[in-house]
Amino acid sequence: MHDSISTLEQLYSAVVADVLDGLGYRHQTLGSDIVALTPARCLIGRVFTARAIAVDEIPAEPYKLEMGAIDSMSEGDVLVVDAGYNRQSAFWGELLSTACMAKGVRGVVMSTCCRDMWALNKMDFPVFGIGRTPADSKGRIDVAEIGRPITIDGVKITNGDLIVGDEDGVVVIPRAVSSEVLKLSLNKVEGENQVRDDLAAGMPVTEAFAKHGIL
Question: pTM of the entire structure?
Fold first, then answer.
């Protein structure tokens, strides 16, 4: 898996999405509302899932499974949270990011909000989400499951999948095809570099596409 993450560091979301499309996996990109909320905008790693739900009272053990998820994650993991596009409170903040960084966790992707931007903006820890709010999650949203399959924007996501996020968005690579996707993505990056050189040298776009089949 370390080799896979090293390979991901050479890629970007658009090329991975193109390769997945070519393999018939055309629903692996999260919705455009999920964006990088922090200056750290390059996110790669291995998925660890959680599902959070709206609540209307403070649980007997608030944050229990949220803390359990962080304690269960390993170096190279990315926490991916299906929260149903809940905008009522901040699921994430500075202290959780600090705990994750200490473990080598690579970032968080969530269909909900975060807070503590004054601190997150100074940290090298990518947080992808749908917005910001100062309201605490306690009594508003709580983790109901960790480590189970989730679905965000029609993308089915399971533990052990790979994930890549950047300024274009977030793409999930199913574990079953990760080796093939990484190999083909590296090849496509090399091809795009050649196309870029030809275009920069003045080659017409139609000629470059006929030559490389890449655009």
Answer: 0.90
